[in-house]
Every structure is written in structure tokens, then in C-alpha cells.
From TrEMBL:
Protein name as annotated: tRNA(Ile)-lysidine synthase
Enzyme class: ligase
UniProt superkingdom: Bacteria
EC number: 6.3.4.19
Keywords, sorted A to Z: Ligase
UniProt organism field: Pseudomonas synxantha
């Protein structure tokens, strides 16, 4: 049996207990029933409890004319409760799913405003969790998706928390009625063309009529799957530790894994480990797209396979897989003369160059490899640069980005490669600091 609405304040405080030392509690306030109840609860608890500073944020999507009145409603509610309100207007990018586009715009804003020590509170409840489970089940989600909405997760530089996931919609309605609250009724919530609304109005009522505890049992299933996902993540971390050995090219600042330990795992464990590794980097591929991993893994040794994902690419080189994104995938603008070799040279979209030791006579300039380059090496004569790069094991995706130091038409040095990066006597060396991964991310 559902607990009575009178329990809501104490239950909310219990759910928020681990976060009482946060710098700020910011409520995602749409003006609808759920967030109105959450805001009202917290504003009144703040009168008798020592809570972090409360504020609210309203994201205005501007997708329908009636929504233009909502910021003013939210402003008046927050003013009456003494809670500061921030209103942010966003532009929703068109796409296949308007629901998803609006959600992405909303959560992008939330991430931007959530700083260190901040907690963003959203008002999703137990009925929402059941809808999420059904929706993802019908889309063929795996364990991660079927575990539903997490109670907490990282967001921006802080955290997102859903403290009402054990509360039903009926309890929120009862609380709002008892306290005479008013809220916005979004007309789009009645539009059955949206999948979530169809489930809410057409499917769940039928299920609950036949199985009255359906919402509670689905929420319980989501909790079980959350536990299962936790075990899968522990297994992934174990498997990834085996593949996380260092590389002689760690100076590239790129994330990489040793391929052999991964390839020894079962296909399911490979997908599990890689999903865990890729999850912070890109939207994960769907089931059909995982064939790209098999192609990359099983390619012949002299191939340079690439697996293209939503937000970057996986490359294979030197017995490792490498994650590339952002500037690493963009064409490089031309470089030219190094006017002051005694000072570091910032290269457009490709990091910083510096010379140490006795600076060679100039004029000096920087080029990138185009093919056919030859380098004179004492005792070895003139050597084809391609062969020298092969001998050094330079990953194929790096070769076109390696800065080359020239004096006239003479190739003097290849940055960072031992034996090729300066004078044979060691009087000077050419150092390259590539863009780090944060700078390279799109």
C-alpha cells in the first residue's frame, strides 16, 4: 500500500540526507505538478531544517505559444516561496524526436549551471520510472537502459539527484491538493503521438487495472536491474584493468587500451568492457552497430581499421585501440616559418612545439608529412621517412600530424621520436605537446 502524503517531508529529508552538506540545492522547476510539489516541500522544510541554499531554474524551450506564459508563473511561485529563480531560454535543435531534442537542450543547460558542490534536484517519481522502463523495453534496451533513471549521477561539475523516485504521482497530487498548490498543465502532455504520453494514458492504466501493483513492481524490477548493472560495471573495470597497460606513445594524451587482453574475452564481456570505457566519451552504439567493433578487432595486422561512433572514432594501431575525437579528426591548416625558434610555437589545432638546447641555424619552418620525405641519418645515409616511422611504430593516425622541422628542403627533425628528434650529438631536440583530450573533444 502506498504511504500517505503526510510522510512526504520526512521521506524527502531521508532521501536527501547524504547531500545535506552540498553547497547548493537547485530545483529543476518546470512549473508542472511534480516540480511544484518538490519546490514547495523544500521551501517549507528550509524554515525548520538547516538545508543548503535553495534556488530554482526554469528552462524555457519556446516550443508552443502557451509556454510563453510559464516563466512568469514560475517567477510568481518562487517569489511567494522566497526561492531565487533563474530562467534560461534555449533553442531546441530539430531532429527525429522533438522529445529527445528538448530533453537534450534542457540537460545541457542543467550541466552548465551545476558547479562543484552543487546538486540539481529533479522531480521524477515512481510512475515516471515505470514509464521509462516500459519505453526502454519496447526499444530493446539492455540492462543499463532497463535499470531506469538513476537516483543520482554526475552532472556538470556537480550531481543530479532524483529524491522522489519512491513517491507515486497520486501522492504528489494529494499533497498539492492538501496545500492548495497551482501548477502548469502542459497541453503537449496529452498528445498521444508522443510515446511517453501514449504509455502514460493508454497503456499503464490498462496494466494497473489488471495488476494494481504494476507500477510498484516495475520500479522494483528497475532496482534489481540497477544492481545487475552495478555488477556488470565491476566486471568491466576488472577487464579494463587487464587492458590498461602503458604505451610508449602515452605522451599523445589519448585514451587507449591494449587489444590482446580484450580479444581473449568472450564477445559479451568485450562489449560490456568497451561500453563501460566508451560511455563517458560518446553515445553508445546500438546492437547492429557493434559489428564495427568486430571488424576493427579482427582486421589483418597490417590494416588500419576505424570504427566510427557518434562522437568520435576508435582506431587500431600498434596492438592497441585508440579513441580520437574533436580536433584529432579535423584537417590540419598549413604551418610555415618558425619566426622565433627560441620561443614555443602554438600550431593551429595541433598543440605546441618547442626547441631545447642549442637552436639550429635558420631559417626554420614546420611542415606535415605529404609522402616521399627523406631524412639524412649519420651512418645510415638517406632514409625514407615512411620506413623510419614504421621502425618507430608510430600509429598511423599520428603520422600526418607529426610536426617536421625543415631548414630549406632539408628535413632536420621529427618531433618526439627518439633518434629523429634532433641533432645526433644531442645538442638540441624538437618537442611536441599535442592537444590534450579535453581540448580535442568536440
Amino acid at each position: 500500500m502506498d504511504r500517505p502524503a503526510i510522510d512526504l517531508p520526512s521521506r524527502l529529508l531521508l532521501n536527501l540526507k547524504p547531500w545535506r552538506n552540498a553547497a547548493t540545492w537547485r530545483i529543476a522547476f518546470s512549473g508542472g505538478l511534480d516540480s511544484t510539489v518538490l519546490l514547495h516541500l523544500l521551501a517549507h522544510l528550509a524554515k525548520t531544517e538547516s538545508l543548503p541554499a535553495l534556488s530554482a531554474i526554469h528552462v524555457h524551450h519556446g516550443l508552443q505559444a502557451v509556454a510563453d506564459a510559464w516563466p512568469e508563473h514560475c517567477r510568481s511561485v518562487c517569489a511567494a516561496l522566497g526561492v531565487p529563480l533563474q530562467i534560461v531560454r534555449v533553442q531546441v535543435q530539430p531532429g527525429a524526436s522533438l522529445e529527445r531534442a528538448a530533453r537534450d537542450a534542457r540537460y545541457h543547460t542543467f550541466a552548465e549551471v551545476t558547479g562543484p558542490g552543487d546538486v540539481l534536484l529533479t522531480a521524477q517519481h515512481r510512475d515516471d520510472q515505470a514509464e521509462t522502463l516500459l519505453f526502454r523495453l519496447l526499444r530493446g534496451a539492455g540492462v543499463r537502459g532497463l535499470s531506469g533513471m538513476p537516483r543520482q549521477r554526475s552532472l556538470g561539475k556537480g550531481h543530479l539527484l532524483r529524491p522522489l523516485l519512491d513517491v507515486t504521482r497520486a501522492e504528489l497530487e494529494a499533497y498539492a491538493s492538501t496545500h492548495g498548490l497551482s501548477w502548469i498543465e502542459d497541453p503537449s502532455n496529452q498528445d498521444r503521438q508522443y510515446s511517453r504520453n501514449y504509455l502514460r494514458h493508454q497503456v499503464l492504466p490498462v496494466l494497473v487495472q489488471r495488476w494494481p501493483q504494476a507500477v510498484a513492481t516495475m520500479a522494483r524490477s528497475a532496482a534489481h536491474l540497477t544492481e545487475a548493472q552495478g555488477l556488470l560495471e565491476e566486471l568491466a573495470e576488472m577487464d579494463l584493468r587487464e587492458a590498461s597497460s602503458g604505451s610508449e606513445f602515452d605522451w599523445l594524451g589519448l585514451r587507449s587500451l591494449e587489444l590482446a587482453p580484450l580479444a581473449q574475452l568472450s564477445d559479451a564481456r568485450q562489449r560490456n568492457a568497451l561500453s563501460h570505457w566508451l560511455e563517458p566519451l560518446t553515445r553508445l552504439p546500438d546492437t547492429d552497430h557493434w559489428s564495427g567493433w568486430a571488424d576493427l578487432r579482427d582486421a589483418t595486422g597490417d590494416a588500419c581499421p576505424v570504427w566510427r561512433l557518434a562522437d568520435g572514432e576508435l582506431h587500431r594501431a600498434g596492438g592497441r585501440i585508440w579513441w580520437l575525437s574533436g580536433c584529432w579528426l579535423q584537417p590540419l591548416p598549413a604551418v610555415g616559418a618558425w619566426q622565433d625558434p627560441a620561443a614555443p610555437l602554438a600550431i593551429a589545432d595541433n598543440g605546441v612545439l618547442s626547441l631545447t638546447g642549442q637552436i639550429p641555424d635558420g631559417p626554420l619552418h614546420i611542415r606535415y608529412r605529404e609522402g616521399g620525405e627523406v631524412m639524412a641519418l649519420p651512418g645510415r645515409g638517406h632514409r625514407d621517412l615512411k620506413r623510419l616511422l614504421n621502425e618507430s611504430g608510430v600509429p598511423s593516425f599520428v603520422r600526418g600530424r607529426l610536426p617536421l622541422l625543415y631548414k630549406g628542403d632539408q628535413l632536420l627533425a621529427v618531433a618526439n621520436l627518439k633518434g629523429l628528434d634532433g641533432s645526433t650529438s644531442g645538442d638540441w631536440h624538437l618537442h611536441w605537446q599535442p592537444l590534450n583530450e579535453d581540448q580535442g573533444l568536440s
